[in-house]
Design brief:
207 residues; alpha/beta; Nucleotidyltransferase, domain 5; five-stranded mixed β-sheet; two-stranded antiparallel sheet; 8 helices; 7 strands
Length: 207
């Protein structure tokens, strides 16, 4: 709840390190369930991808070893949804857009050609950059700001187990989407009302 890695909580002597880790994992699983039930976005929407993971030797870019690719959808002045994806593949990204946004929305994206088909669903504005800055008034600053927010949250962990990365990502999205609220009572309520049968199916990704 405090945004502190579980291994640092061991100094408070409130429980064993294993019990603390299970407790936080349960909270993250509840966050993942809550985010999974979020209504599709509409209106002005930003879409983008980013990679997560520490620096590695060897290949760089989207296919770099040890990196997780994350696709994000942000409703401007609103909320975020983010998803680990297997590869930077247009079909998977567009499928996520179709599932989590409503037709008729206005999409802001970079110039990746996979986004070209979004013009069929609604408006589509391609944001181009020069010297790292958007050309003109159009931008995707909102979702790029979220990437910075997410990586800042993950930095103190110095790496997380890949099989649980989706839970950490869900927690970050949940915190961002409730950033103006007191999270303690929200987390407590979720822990009390979420059946264990649901958390087990969300705990570990199968792909």
């Amino acid at each position: 709840m405090l945004g502190v890695p579980g291994n640092r909580m061991r100094f408070r002597k409130i429980a064993s390190a294993e019990a603390i880790e299970r407790f936080f994992r349960q909270i993250r699983t509840c966050c993942a369930l809550a985010e999974g039930f979020r209504e599709p976005f509409e209106g002005q929407i930003e879409c983008d991808e980013s990679t997560f993971g520490g620096a590695r030797h060897g290949k760089r870019g989207w296919g770099a070893a040890g990196k997780i690719i994350v696709f994000g959808i942000l409703q401007r002045n609103g909320k975020i949804q983010a998803f680990p994806i297997n590869r930077r593949q247009g079909a998977e990204v567009i499928q996520l857009v179709a599932e989590h946004t409503r037709p008729g929305s206005l999409y802001y994206t970079d110039d990746w050609q996979a986004y070209a088909s979004l013009a069929i669903r609604g408006g589509h504005i391609v944001v181009t950059k020069e010297g790292g800055k958007p050309k003109g008034r159009d931008h995707i600053n909102g979702i790029e700001g979220f990437w910075s927010y997410a990586k800042h949250w993950l930095y103190p962990y110095r790496g997380v187990p890949q099989k649980f990365f989706h839970l950490y990502l869900a927690e970050i999205c949940f915190r961002f989407n409730h950033r103006r609220e007191d999270l303690c009572p929200i987390f407590t309520n979720m822990l009390q009302k979420t059946p264990s049968s649901l958390t087990l199916t969300t705990l570990v990704r199968s792909d």
